[in-house]
Design brief:
Chains A, B: It comes from Pseudonocardia hierapolitana. The structure is a homodimer of 243-residue chains. Chain A is α/β, with parallel strands linked by helices. Chain A is built from seven helices and nine strands; from the N terminus they run ββββαβααβαβαβαβα. Chain A has one domain: 3-Layer(aba) Sandwich (Rossmann fold). In chain A, helix 2 packs across helix 3 and helix 3 crosses helix 4. Chain A is globular, with a radius of gyration of 17 Å.
């Protein structure tokens, strides 16, 4: 892990860009911390530049409660090399959505499964690097979108103690099976009128999660309309499980 | 309104029993308050004695944040005179549930509609009396069960500014129509595995509410298993809308 930039934000939070091999990422650490800060991994749908305002806002809400937060670019997104197969799957998805057709499981599998298979080991490598930094200690939470990545991480990465998942993307059937194996506490955010998300599928997925400590927060509005108070609710969720 | 008992609880909350005509009730007020306290009406399924521990616990959580809280006995419950029609409807419901049969809309109508018709004017009369007391001022919230009563109150009582509703009881079809007229902010609690509650009906009802400011909190477990943190979440919901 190599730091590539560093700036102090107006609330004292230290923001550092880094690369991990070819993967760019950002780390935010609280302005003042006496003990090692618990870490929250911020998931997102890819495209660090585009996502930066929302990620930085979430990181600052976390930092205000003493958490470090970090994110990495997803495979085939932002400045990283593209994948022809992923582009093709995305085009097929767009065609189905624009035609108002139901999206084939086969398209979802082609779109999401290779992404999960590649992204999850990268998140784990980032976790190795982040936890070796001074001032950052466990426990670790995962917060954000690409719920399929969150599911797989929750199953395979024992250092993740709690996850705040955003039900706003397609989930392959096989990930429903993995969801049954999740035993860490979960809070799931659902935007009730999310244009790109199947509400019933999200409810079925919430039902499928194996953990007994799961809470669903559904709010009105579309994909990007999550109310501001859910940021603080997320902090309280992590406070119950990471401290 | 006539006070019939008074005790100071260990956290300084003043608990007073009262009667309003033939209706018994309880009022809790914060130990110290500089300004008139906003008021939260605590709904429940009937039977003040049996419900007392849960109601008092909720009232104390509210009082800690500066809210007064009050409840009244429901018609045909607790020490109030019984209704033969209500008893019959309840027996029919029990028979259907024990036989594992779907519950007829007709039974739900007979059970719930007369209760709503009688209880809502009583709640409004209680509100008149409570708001005339020194130290209690608007705004007013409603929190609790018998969601059908909460719906009707939210529609007809303009002094109620926000409602925290517990989706844990049967709702007549006609109340779904009234739900579309609700425009105040709502937070709806759903116990995912509530044995006496139809999950899909609860989700349909959440969908039906006319307000754009509605949030659903679903948690695992049965009817009485609402996690403790939802008490504080409820306070924060009211803090956003009653202060």
């Amino acid at each position: 892990m190599r730091f590539t930039s560093e700036q102090r934000l107006d609330d004292g939070v230290l923001e550092r860009g880094f690369t991990l091999g070819e993967i760019p990422g950002i780390l935010w650490t609280p302005g003042s911390a006496s003990a090692p800060a618990p870490l929250i991994l911020l998931g997102h749908p890819g495209g660090l530049h585009k996502m930066y305002p929302r990620l930085a806002a979430r990181a600052r809400i976390s930092a205000a409660e003493g958490y470090a937060a970090a994110t990495i670019e997803l495979p085939w997104s932002g400045d990283r090399p593209r994948s022809a197969a992923a582009e093709e799957a995305r085009a097929d998805l767009r065609r189905a959505l624009e035609a108002g057709e139901p999206v084939d499981d086969e398209i979802v599998d082609r779109l999401v499964l290779p992404l999960v298979d590649k992204a999850v080991p990268e998140w784990r490598a980032a976790l190795d690097a982040l936890l070796s930094l001074p001032g950052i200690g466990g426990p670790v939470g995962y917060a954000g979108g690409v719920i399929a990545i969150g599911i797989r991480l929750a199953v395979v990465e024992p250092r993740i103690s709690a996850a705040l998942l955003f039900a706003g993307s397609f989930v392959p059937r096989t990930l429903f099976e993995e969801a049954r194996q999740v035993t860490i506490p979960l809070q799931v955010l659902l935007q009730w009128d999310d244009e790109g998300n199947d509400r019933q599928m999200a409810l079925d997925l919430f039902d499928a999660f194996g953990t007994e400590e799961k809470t669903l927060h559904a709010n009105m509005g579309g994909h990007t309309g999550v109310p501001q108070f859910e940021g603080e609710d997320g902090n309280r969720f992590f406070a119950r499980h990471l401290k």
